[in-house]
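Hey, can you fold this?
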Amino acid sequence: MVRRALLAVYDKTGVVELAQGLVEMGVSLVSSGGTAATIRAAGLEVTSVEDLTGFPEMLDGRVKTLHPLIHGGLLADKRKPEHLAQLAEHGIEPFDLVVVNLYPFRETVASGAGTDEVIEKIDIGGPAMVRAAAKNFGSVGVVVDPSSYPEVLNELRAHGGLSRATRERLAATAFAHTAAYDAAVAGWFAERASTAEMPGFVGVALEKVGDLRYGENPHQRGALYRESGGSAAEGGPLGGAHVLQGKDMSFNNWLDAEAAYSLVAALTPGACVIVKHNNPCGVAVAAEQDEAYRRAFDCDTVSAFGGIVAFDAACTGPAAEAMRDVFTEVVIAPGYEPAALAAFGERQNLRVLEAPLPEAGGLDIRTMPGGALVQDRDVVTERREDFEVVSSREPTEDEWGDLLLAWTIAWRVKSNTIVLVRDGATVGIGAGQMSRVDASWIATRKAGDRAKGASLASDAFFPFPDALEVAADAGATAVIHPGGSKGDDAVLQAAEERGMAVVLTGRRHFRH
């Protein structure tokens, strides 16, 4: 049964309504600082922590709830007579319900605040109370999420208390909450302590958004998670993508949507990307969105079947009409014109996602049994002025445009990769091959006659001239690659013999 509750929250959303509901059921309230003031301002009776303990709030608020009269009331196991006897001996009353949420550490860091301000948002008393109550869930209910208030009140009204199953579930949520909080604090310190090296600690705290039908295959379990911290409406996969229509997203849908959206965000304005099985199968940049889609689709009309389409601006009605006769699993964009939504609305199996364009950077974490590999997320930061023309012939301006586009596309294609671009659109992509010459064969075969006059990008250097020769013989006229191979001279000689312009980037973009 709940007779006495402790409320101490930074986020005061719904706390007055919760307090009113508790008071109506005869629950006595104890609260600290601003929470007590908020409850009292609503005309409700509440005992302040400092009146209970006899000690004022100290050290700029760093010490207020760290006291035996508080923690004795939280940690006493009321099933044990000896615990109850000790409470009576020391004049301590037990708590039955604890409602606490923590200082906004992550938000303060994200705001760019200075070190002193960030440190003051490292909560001490809050996590201590949460962990104490959660440990003692056999005797105490602990609530850390304002969205849980209505559910808790309903159960209290119905039964006068919280069932053991509810208390255990709330405790699990509470420990996950403090674990995520501590991971964020530890990660911040580790990042500050690191110099050129990777941080000594990387904390990943995830909260489940929902179950998926299955993982990559039907025999695998799957679920969607978001980074802990913030409300469910903020952040999350793909920046908090909203599914506006269509069937539930699958595990593979989410993977492919990320691949398409990350690439389209890195391209020049007016881009459209089509992804199939986590690889781009068509990319184009054009003044009109429907034209960009058509040109991206024309790169590989077979692979685009059942693909994911991404735009870098609000999807237009003409673009949606251009997609009408093509089976598409997912379309993702920052927004949609009403005409586009109307056109998509006729296709109930099409999943329509709205999400902000993703920001580059952060850490790339790949788990393996017993540990993980962690690296900086790969980003294309190099520009035209960073590159070196090593051939006797300079690329034309048209070739430069296609080379830069091809280079960025190659960044998001599985290695080994060869990308052919002509007039602002891909005409052939060879992805994920064990040898670079095979990737070149695939790209040129898909391009056919469209390879004539195309520009070529390779995500890593050419160990031998063969892959370049395949593309040159198909009609490619310019090439961009990192260089750095023992075979660079032979590759350059093969290019010179064929009149190709050659650009070196000095950086590779493997994608495994």
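Oh, and this one too while you're at it.
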Amino acid sequence: MTIHDSLGHAYSGATPQSLEHYELACADFRCYINDPLAGAQQALTGLVLEDLSIRHPLDLLALQAGHQVDFFTGHSRMLRDRIARAEGAWHLGMPGYHAVQSMYAFGLEETGDYARAEALGRRAVTLEPRDGWGWHAVAHVMEMQNRRRDGVAWLGTRSDTWADGSFFAIHNWWHLALFHLGLDEADEVLKLVDARILGTDSAVILDMIDASAMLWRLHLRGIDVGSRWQALADRWSVLAEAGNYAFNDLHAMMAFVGADRQADAARLLATQARALQLDGDNAQFLCDVGRAATQAVHAFAGGRYAEAAQLLRPLRSKAYRFGGSHAQRDVIDLTLIEAAERDGQKLFADALKRERAARWG
């Protein structure tokens, strides 16, 4: 007997019980809650998933996995277009329709279509209030439009809905902290850092990236974060020689220099040098952006501001090539501005500030 899922796909080797567990896991994955992957390994490349989604637009797992590959590899256009190709096959009432809307919303935001992105993101969380990616997509719109008060209201008043049981919660807490930082509410930022972002002691790399990124932004503003760097550097230390993703390296370096862990910083730089000689995506990520960005953070922390600015200046137009979002990669511009100021390059720093203000509303 052929077994079909709720969207009509036939499954080989499945029983009614196993398919029920699979669909529950997929439902959790669509909302970024609980533990849907439970140790599973992602084995497909983004191109294979792209072709699969063209043939089978209702294969939501392929769409979502491909969407994440696009995010981690910096393919902003595909974040939008992968979903745009499939979206017409979906309609209200289908299981998982909310997730298609939230993915499309994020892709639209990353390609600058903020009005449509916000509308679809809001629709996604109306359909499924626990859809963490939908909350996230709308938060990105508000960040890019400099709508800090709106962002605090958006995430701050419904946190019990999007945070409960979500493995994506720390990143949305990070966005809420980012809104408070934009409002110069450093005390609120530190409260969120201690209670929600850093204080969880999470060993999940995405959570560690958020902690590094927020502490570094505070550091750039001259705000003393005390001993907070130390525990975070401990968590990054075991990954100093991983050498598998340049975006991680950048944030690990922030923690190492913040905690004055020079030996770990040296190990990380040596690992990058070796990784540049290997085949694969990470060598390209390092060559395009990651190596120079990581060296720049190291130089900045050592007071070599002219060197940091020189390393960062060519990266701004191609920073997308090593993954992350516009909001995350903004740390490159912020570090460049501060390095230029501290080096006495006032005209350049002021020009960058005007440019950034115009770009981000």
